[in-house]
C-alpha cells in the first residue's frame, strides 16, 4: 500500500504536484494531503503557505503518479536475523517449503547463579517454604526502618460495613441463613473448581509456568528453572 507515502502527480498541463498519498476513489480519483506544486529548479522544502491541506485529482487529468523512495519488494521480504543485512525472501513458495510446516524453536538455557550471588536475591532463597512476608512482619519492618506506621486493620473496617452482633432471635436467624448460603456456595461444583485452580495452580502449570526442580530428585542445582509454554 502506498497510503502515507510521498508521491508526485503529473497532470495534463505538465505541472507536478507532490504530497502524501491519502487514497484513491472507485472513480480513480487521487487524493493527496499536505500537497504543493513542484516548481522547476526548486530544491528547498515548501513553505507553509505553499501547502494545501487536500488536493483531489480527477482521472482524466492525471498523466502519471510516481511514488518516491518506496521499496516495492518490501511485502515479500522478511528477516532471517536481527539486522537489515539478513534480508531474505520469506513469502515465496520456495522459502516457505524450507520450513516443511515446522518452525524451529529456540532452546532455552538454564540460568546459572554466580558463585558470589547474594543468597537473598535467589528466587528460592527461603527454601521454597514461604509464600512471602507476613503482613504484620512487613508493617513492623517499615515502621522500624522508615518510621512509617501502617493503619491497616485486618477487619477492613474502613472498607466494609461492620455487623453489630445482637443477642436476638432475628439476628441469629439471619446469621444462620447467611451461613447456609455460604455453605451451599462452597459445596457447588463451580466454586470447588475455582478453589482447586487457585490452590494447585493447574492452569499455570499447564500453560505457562516456571517449574522448580524438586529437592528430592537429586537433580543438581536448585537454581535452574525451565519455562514451559503450551497452547490450546
From TrEMBL:
InterPro entries: ATXN2-like, LsmAD_domain, SM_dom_ATX
UniProt xrefs under Pfam families: LsmAD, SM-ATX
Domain of life: Eukaryota
GO CC annotation: cytoplasm
A single GO molecular function term of this UniProt record: RNA binding
All copies of domain LsmAD, residue ranges: 146-213
UniProt cross-references to PANTHER family, sorted A to Z: ATAXIN 2-RELATED, ATAXIN-2 HOMOLOG
Family, similarity comment: Belongs to the ataxin-2 family.
Name the record gives this protein: LsmAD domain-containing protein
Organism field: Branchiostoma floridae (Florida lancelet)
Amino acid at each position: 500500500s502506498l497510503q502515507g507515502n510521498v508521491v508526485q502527480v503529473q497532470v495534463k498541463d505538465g505541472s507536478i504536484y507532490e504530497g502524501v498519498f491519502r487514497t484513491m476513489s472507485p472513480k480513480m480519483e487521487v487524493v493527496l494531503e499536505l500537497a504543493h506544486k513542484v516548481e522547476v529548479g526548486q530544491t528547498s522544502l515548501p513553505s507553509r503557505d505553499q501547502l494545501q491541506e487536500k488536493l483531489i485529482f480527477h482521472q482524466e487529468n492525471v498523466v502519471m503518479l510516481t511514488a518516491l523512495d518506496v521499496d516495492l519488494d518490501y511485502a515479500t521480504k522478511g528477516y532471517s536475523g536481527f539486522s537489515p543485512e539478513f534480508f531474505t525472501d520469506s513469502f515465496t513458495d520456495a522459502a516457505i517449503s524450507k520450513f516443511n510446516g515446522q518452525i524451529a524453536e529456540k532452546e532455552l538455557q538454564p540460568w546459572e547463579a554466580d558463585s558470589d550471588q547474594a543468597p537473598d536475591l535467589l528466587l528460592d532463597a527461603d527454601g521454597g517454604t514461604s509464600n512471602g512476608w507476613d503482613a504484620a512482619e512487613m508493617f513492623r519492618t517499615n515502621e522500624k526502618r522508615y518510621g512509617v506506621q501502617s493503619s491497616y486493620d485486618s477487619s477492613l473496617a474502613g472498607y466494609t460495613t461492620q455487623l453489630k452482633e445482637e443477642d436476638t432471635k432475628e439476628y441469629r436467624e439471619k446469621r444462620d441463613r447467611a451461613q447456609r448460603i455460604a455453605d451451599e456456595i462452597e459445596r457447588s461444583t463451580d466454586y470447588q473448581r475455582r478453589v482447586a485452580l487457585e490452590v494447585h495452580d493447574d492452569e499455570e502449570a499447564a500453560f505457562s509456568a516456571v517449574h522448580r526442580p524438586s529437592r528430592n530428585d537429586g537433580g543438581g542445582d536448585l537454581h535452574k528453572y525451565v519455562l514451559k509454554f503450551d497452547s490450546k
